[in-house]
């Protein structure tokens, strides 16, 4: 390749990730990492000395800079907007703070119908202008697709009801079982917010959407269908045709996959507990899959990382429509170099066996 070709190549838009979301043929398996911008990066830690997480999200230039860090360092095939699932919840009028290394903290947790009624419907342009401005900056800078995202109603509700991170979601489930009117009103309101917010992000330039339902695996499939499914179906039906593939991700969702397969989504994100061939058997061939290396593997020696990545790839690559990722986010102890080498390995191994 001549120097000139190299420059042109670097400038060309890399749509491998979007092609994989749509189950179209690709030259290699695309890869990105959940929480690919974060505390494992010295540059991120430096920025966090100056700004809180909320402040980063309020300053588009800094937020774009943080979003771009993993693109520059890791050679991943997609960027994910740097934000947090609680940012639009704050815009609904909830007093949320995000404590570094801990998670969201809510001053007045939701308990009654009146608390739900107080939640405002958001207008992304008016209420979250900094997020949309960050997306516009990123689209000018990026030559890989930009993923926008939102938290799903159950996962958002769990923080809003518990007041912070939880182990067993007892208060959340108590509302679900004992006060279904309050619960349904909350699901409804969050569902509307998510649809509006996702449409706003796509209009501003997001090219794919991931809905994070991290804690949904705490429900049985029967309860999922009864208490959450109607809202999820409405959200995804309304997002159909917005021109951006939709990814739905959760942890511990093995038993929920047989319900998820009825949702109008493009990509299903799975954690490391369900082998990708088993996930395929449960959801069929109408979805792309994303995942699912155990993030803990990133602490192992490089040859183990590559062996485990190969095991994941060998299952994932059996069908069209596969995106390599972790089964959950990168954690702070991981070395940047480990992810650099892993990306290189996924790219080279997947292009060699195609
Ligand atoms: O790079 C990226 O992936 C984008 C940034 C991003 C995303 C997608 C952040 C920044 N947060 C999120 C989503 C998010 N936030 C989820 C869904 C994904 C997941 O399961 O990880 C959840 C559950 C949260 C809530 C949250 N925010 C937690 C988890 C708490 C718990 O209940 O265990 C935490 C620790 C945060 C803070 C946070 N958000 C983002 C970062 C980088 C951090 C770490 C802290 C920091 O820098 O201070």
Q: Which overall shape is indicated by the principal axes computed on the Cα atoms?
A: globular
pLDDT < 50 stretches: none
Strand order of the largest sheet: 1-4-5-6-7-8-9
Helix count equals 17
Percent strand: 5-15%
Mean pLDDT: 96
Q: CATH topology, anyone? A: TIM Barrel
Task: Supply the key terms.
354 residues, alpha/beta, TIM Barrel, seven-stranded parallel beta sheet, 17 helices, 9 strands, globular, binds coproporphyrinogen I, cytoplasm, Uroporphyrinogen_deCOase, UROD/MetE-like_sf, lyase, uroporphyrinogen decarboxylase activity
Question: What topology emerges from the helices and strands here?
Answer:
Elements: H1 3-11, H2 16-21, H3 42-50, H4 53-58, H5 60-74, E1 79-80, H6 87-91, E2 96-99, E3 103-106, H7 113-118, H8 124-127, H9 129-141, E4 146-151, H10 153-162, H11 170-178, H12 180-204, E5 208-213, H13 221-239, E6 246-250, H14 257-260, E7 267-269, H15 276-283, E8 288-293, H16 302-316, E9 322-326, H17 336-352
Parallel strand pairs: 1-4, 4-5, 5-6, 6-7, 7-8, 8-9
Antiparallel strand pairs: 2-3
Helix pairs in contact: 5-9, 10-11, 10-12, 11-12, 12-13, 16-17
Bound molecules: coproporphyrinogen I.
